[in-house]
Amino acid sequence: MAFSGSTYRFRAACWCLAVLVLIEILLRGTTFWFNGKYAYTIEMGSRPAQGSRVLYGQEGFGITHYSGFGEIATPYAGGSNNIVVMGNSYAEGLNVNDTDKFVSVAETILRRDGFDVDLRNIGRSGQTIVDQIYLAPYVIEQYHPLIVVIQATVRAFERTAEFVKGDSNQLVISNDGRILVRHQPEPDRDNAVRAIGEFFSILDYGRTRFKQIRSQALKSPGQNPDYAVASVYPVSKDIVMHKVLNKLREAFGSLDLVIVLIPPIPEVHNNRLTEPDFTQYQMIKQDLESIPNVHVVDPSAEFLISFRNHRPPSGFLNTIPGTGHVNAVGHQIIGENLAKILERLIK
Questions:
Q1: What is the DSSP string of 41-70?
Q2: CA 74 to CA 107: how far, in whole Å?
Q3: Which of 74, 247, 71, 254 minimizes the C-alpha distance to 147?
Q4: Close Cβ partners of 59 (under 8 Å, ≥ 6 residues apart)
Q5: What residue spans of the chain are helical by DSSP H?
Q6: Crossing angle for the helix pair 5-30 and 201-217, nearest 10 degrees?
Q7: How far apart are CA 111 and CA 319, in angstroms?
Q8: What would the pLDDT profile of 101-158 be if each residue is shown by its tens digit?
Q9: Non-local CB neighbours of 35 within 8 Å, separated by 6+ positions
Q10: Is 70 within 8 Å of 46 (Cβ atoms)?
Q11: pLDDT tens, position by position, 30-82
């Protein structure tokens, strides 16, 4: 039986469609799926709206629900006092389920111990210290927090002194040497094209991977024309860091600030544990602790103990062991340490 060219083309198109559908199903079940919609404000940009949820399996595996505009669901709501948690991908914690995130761990412990508080997790991947400085008035007006928790890494603090251009919020130096925050609103991309892209995981995941690959390619100062190190300015990096820390303190007024400082992660090479250099970590920790009403959560000792007990606090089954973001073990350690400090401050 002979087939015409149009029949072959039709069958080829059907096979291609079947493959795309299969890939879509696999992505939704194992790797990435956004089910919901985005909302937009000038201050916060685009964030997942209330009722949205994300399945993320590229590193680890977790389902994250959003209880409000950009706010990640926690086990409890409606407490008499708000504690706002800000931070980057470690706070957003897409790698683990909602109840395993350190914010949820801390809230569960506080409620168990009789503290009627509501931890509001507005962590967002890629957020910087400059973002948190800029968002301080918004957070205070929106949540009227009793305490503000800011999760950060050594790199997050160092990056503020490198004057990375292109971020929505970035540092600039005025002619008189003052360090200022300049805000460039994110564009609102809430349109039909984006809606189609978000419905299909294969398109949304492809866009996400492209952005990750591009950011890795541009992270070197020599390769990125929008990246300028502090040495090009008449201010040293140490002075910039000092001013940034003071600016962070000033942004939140008299509120107690709790800094969750994610320590350097030990690495495993040739089946041997290599402990990292904590020099910069300890320096930043000391600088933070010297600022009034700033309290530091330092889980580094527990992280090392956990590693030595063959329970690495970072890494997942689908990544190299001991690398990448903290896993459920790491979140548990951080959450327990955070709860201890919060209980002391609330009392």
A1: ETTTEEEEPTT-EEEE-SSS-EEEEEEETT
A2: 8
A3: 254
A4: 95, 316, 318, 319, 324, 325
A5: 5-30, 89-92, 102-112, 129-143, 154-160, 192-199, 201-217, 237-251, 279-289, 300-308, 328-346
A6: 70
A7: 34
A8: 999 999 999 999 999 999 999 999 988 899 999 999 999 999 999 999 999 998 888 7
A9: 52, 53, 54, 55
A10: no
A11: 888 888 888 888 888 889 999 999 999 989 999 999 999 999 999 999 888 99
Q: Strand order in 256-262's β-sheet?
A: 32-35, 53-56, 62-68, 71-72, 117-121, 81-86, 147-153, 256-262, 294-297
pTM (2 d.p.):
0.87
Which amino acid is located at 12 in the chain?
A: A
Helices 201-217 and 192-199: crossing angle in degrees, nearest 10, is 100
Classified as helix, coil or strand, 230 is helix
Q: Are 97 and 136 in contact (CB under 8 A)?
A: no
Q: State the amino acid at position 21 in one-letter form.
A: V
* Tally of CB atoms within 10 A around 55: 19
Question: CB-side exposure of 324: number of CA atoms within 13 Å?
Answer: 16
> 3-state class of 15 per DSSP?
helix
Listed in sequence order, the residues at least 6 apart from 202 whose beta carbon sits closer than 8 Å to its beta carbon are 20, 23, 24, 27
